[in-house]
Amino acid sequence: AQKITQTQPGMFVQEKEAVTLDCTYDTSDQSYGLFWYKQPSSGEMIFLIYQGSYDEQNATEGRYSLNFQKARKSANLVISASQLGDSAMYFCAMRGENNNDMRFGAGTRLTVKP
Amino acid sequence: DAGITQSPRYKITETGRQVTLMCHQTWSHSYMFWYRQDLGHGLRLIYYSAAADITDKGEVPDGYVVSRSKTENFPLTLESATRSQTSVYFCASSDKGYGYTFGSGTRLTVV
What is the mean pLDDT of chain B? Predict the structure, then answer.
């Protein structure tokens, strides 16, 4: 069974600094996709970044990058130059070979301090 | 409007009542999903559908029923609501192998 673990219930970061949100996963699939979503206080789920298991380079999307370490089964999200608007819940998720569903971690609440 | 729409946004119902949450998508995505979000649990999959007339259970299906007679609609029914089903419900859709697009969520309170 697939499992996603986010060990940081809450994180604080100073505005303009970088922050890393941890995510580890467990799967026996050879092919899978890793995703990060942002959920602001308004409640919607916003897709941030995707990493395929066969991608050799780490994914980047603007200020977001995914530090993918396949052997360690980790997919940490790095946010550079934090902004106040980055304060939100962040969810790591994985979709396996069968593509039937995506499993989510419990989330990390990020607070950016001015 | 293009996208994925959930209705209602908010619902209060009594224990034992049947309630249906609606989900409609305009992209003709093959996959549709229902998740519930509870504090400390993240999002947990209730049911999913790979195509019209094909549905399957997720992690927490007990007490829920789904149907998918048309590709664009995927209603979720609570047959006899319980207080433990108080939650925020998210519908999502995707094509095979891609990430999800989520609806805005339905906040359900069972009293």
Answer: 93
Q: Does B47 touch chain A (CB under 8 A)?
A: no
Which residue bears the tokens 């559908």?
Answer: B49
Give the residues across from A58 on adjacent strands: none
Residues recorded for chain A: 114
Helix, strand, or coil (residue B84): helix
Of A40, A22, A42, the C-alpha closest to A105 is A22
In DSSP terms, B49 is beta-bridged to B32, B55
Beta strands in chain B (DSSP E): 4-7, 10-13, 19-25, 31-38, 42-51, 54-57, 64-66, 76-78, 87-94, 101-102, 106-110
CA distance A23 to chain B (A): 13
Phi then psi for residue A84, to 5 deg, are: -60, -35
Would you state the structure tokens that stand for residue B107, as one six-digit string? 């906040």
Q: Is A30 buried (19+), middle (13-18) or exposed (0-12) by CB count in 10 A?
A: exposed
Q: What is the pLDDT of residues B21-39, one digit of tens each?
A: 999 999 889 999 999 999 8
Which pLDDT does position A98 carry in this prediction? 74
Contacts across the A-B interface (CB distance below 8 Å): 51
The pLDDT of residue B97 is 65
